[in-house]
Amino acid sequence: MTAAASGSAGTPRRRGRPARTDTGSGPGARERILAAARAEFAARGYDRASIRAIAKGADVDPALVHHYYGPKEQIFAAAIETDFAPALEAQEVIRAGGPDTLGERLTRFILGVWEDPATREQLLAIVRSAVANETAAAIFRDLVTSRLMTRIAGELDAPDAKLRSEVAAAHLVGVAMLRYVIKVEPLASADVEQVVAMVAPAVQRHLAGDGAQPT
């Protein structure tokens, strides 16, 4: 037997998935997984997205997705928190001025987030997933309640602050759904300044009422 043949016979053939390169699980893997998850949920929605597809998009083993983020509902929560981050700045908007323009500031801010093409598509993906799947809806509801509504309520010096913040949010979400998701005309094509002018007084009443002021 030749040396070459001996070497070939003495080295067992590797089976299964080839070893990943350092780029698969090295520095930046967590960030790549989150980016791939955001893209997958945006493209396919919560129901059709899969851990395997996310792993493929990030060029990692599916086990690494579980290692960093756990099951699908947990990586969905991480993904939508990133996508929803611009809306979480609403608390600072409330603090930025006096009580008389509170409704206008918040209305302009929320509609501005939807008007921005860079954030609109991600928000649309979140809403579609939440409408179609109860698990996704529960995750989104918890995020909105704990990270947005509670913060806004904490800035209000008014009776029933939590209820006020939720009613204001319901008004703004309803406008956003009709304008950007369902695209009901003429609301969908109306100038955003006209929409702000019509919606802001109602949001002002919901949030501030009589004599209510931000803390």
UniProtKB/TrEMBL annotation:
Assigned keywords, A-Z: DNA-binding
One Pfam family, short name: TetR_N
Region annotation (Disordered) ranges: 1-30
Ranges for the HTH tetR-type domain? 27-87
Instruction: Give residue spans, biased composition: Low complexity.
Output: 1-11
Residue ranges: DNA binding: 50-69
Q: What is this protein called?
A: TetR family transcriptional regulator
Name the species this protein comes from. Streptomyces roseoverticillatus
